Amino acid sequence: MAKIKSIEFKNFRNFENFKTSFDNKINILFGDNGCGKTNILEGISLIAKGRGIRNSNIHNLIKKKADNFRIINNIEIHKNNYDIEIFSEKSSDKFKKVIKVNNDLSKESLDFLNQSISYLIFMPEMERLFQASPSYRRNFLDRLIFSSRNDYNRLINKYKKLLLERVKILQVNSDYDWLNNIEKEICTLGLEIYNLRNHQLNFLNNELSILKNDHKFQFSVKLKIKDDFFIKDIDHQEYLSTLQNLRTHDRHYGGTKIGPHRSDVISIINDDFDASMLSTGQQKTVVLMVLLAQCNFLINNKKINPIFLFDEIGSHLDDINRQVLLDIINRFEVQFFLTGTDKNLFSFISTNAQFYNITNI
Ligand SMILES: Nc1ncnc2c1ncn2[C@@H]1O[C@H](COP(=O)(O)OP(=O)(O)O)[C@@H](O)[C@H]1O
Ligand SMILES: [Mg+2]
After folding, report:
1. Looking at residue 148, what is its pLDDT?
2. Domain spans in the chain, listed from the N-terminal domain onward
3. Residues of the chain falling short of pLDDT 50
4. Which atom of ligand 1 has the smallest separation from the CA of 64?
5. Three-class DSSP category at 7
6. The pLDDT of residue 191
7. What CATH class does 1-118+304-361 carry?
8. How far is CA 250 from CA 72, 165, 166, 256, in A?
9. Residue 312 CA: which ligand 1 atom is closest?
10. What is the structure's pLDDT at 173?
């Protein structure tokens, strides 16, 4: 179980020098808009794999006019303390993120860190998850998969790169040997992505059906992949021949008509209607329920206790959503980082929360 004990920023986003320690359970960061609350969550989310909650370019993380950033933090993993250092490094005009664990750069240390830390993230724009584009919902699901599978982003990126390469071959030259190989590989990776997404949804639906029996939730939620192509189990050969038959079409439109990059993830309420039909507050409940289900999945199936990063969670919380949030807080032995503009937004959290006024630090 990982707990962040302290963090220090040097030339990170709007912070030249910022240092604070954290509580093991509930940390509430409050302060005016623009004071840096989301930046702090982002800094925390950069510990271990990935590009953080904003999926930002490394370059944008560096404080304007500075050359690089540095995040130093102390983290407790299974009762042992580790000093982690994250910093930007420029090589051949490109910035990359470097992580040191107890001053060690080895792959083993990084793997250990990646396996020990996982985040559950709520960003304010997730309130509109069911109104957003399919790609936003796909990314939402992909992030959940990534939180327990370190190699998942690599798989997605490789798949996307192959799609671009295929279109380039179709439009620029017609090297059919090369094209055949790429299409085969696209189908292999595409099927892998379809399967992993379906797997994750099965786990989540199972957890969600258990949650339904909880009296706090007024409705049932079932997540489903919506995909015009992948409607039943499709094998590699069938996938490949469909893709080959689409060459003329894809050359003309400059894309790839079928595949997991075209899927949507929909949420069916009470086995009846789409979550977009619910009120805004109810949609927020559904998102929180899915995150709660994911937390159950991580703890029960993966033995990972995630760290919660909930940005602007204090705003627009009705009584039911407060109950759901309290339920999450009371149910799990995990560390929370919650933000809001006003301290009073969190008065309903009666447990010993630690408050941080970001303007005053
Ligand atoms: N690379 C950067 N250098 C300097 N300032 C930055 C950088 N990136 C973002 N900021 C500034 O950080 C400020 C705080 O952002 P944010 O964390 O989103 O605030 P909050 O979440 O508290 O409303 C913004 O005013 C933004 O302009
Ligand atoms: Mg913010």
Report:
1. 87
2. 1-118+304-361
3. none
4. 3
5. strand
6. 97
7. alpha beta
8. 47, 12, 9, 6
9. 21
10. 78
Buried b or exposed e, range 256-285, using 16+ CB within 10 angstroms: bebbbbbbbbbbebeeeeebeebeeebbbb
- Give the closest ligand to the alpha carbon of residue 62: 1
Q: Which atom of ligand 1 is nearest to the CA of 33?
A: 23
Q: What pLDDT, on a 0 to 100 scale, did the predictor assign at position 231? A: 81
pLDDT at position 213 is 80
Q: Where are the alpha helices (DSSP H) in the chain?
A: 37-45, 58-61, 107-116, 134-146, 152-171, 176-212, 236-245, 247-253, 280-301, 319-331
Work out the burial of residue 55: count CB atoms within 10 Å of its CB; fewer than 13 is exposed, 13-18 middle, 19 or more buried: exposed
Question: How is residue 107 written in tokens?
Answer: 């792959």
- Tokens (6 digits) for 33: 């808009």
Count CB atoms within 10 A of the CB of residue 51: 15
The pLDDT assigned to 11 comes to: 97
Quick check: CB of 13 below 6 Å from ligand 1? yes
Tell me what pLDDT residue 223 has: 97
Question: Is any ligand 1 atom within 6 A of the Cβ of residue 11?
Answer: no
**Structure confidence at residue 162 (pLDDT):** 98
Residue 329: name the closest of 319, 342, 338 by CA. Answer: 338
Residue 310 Cα, ligand 2 centroid: separation in angstroms?
10
For residue 216, what pLDDT is reported? 74
Cβ proximity of 8 and 2 under 8 Å: no
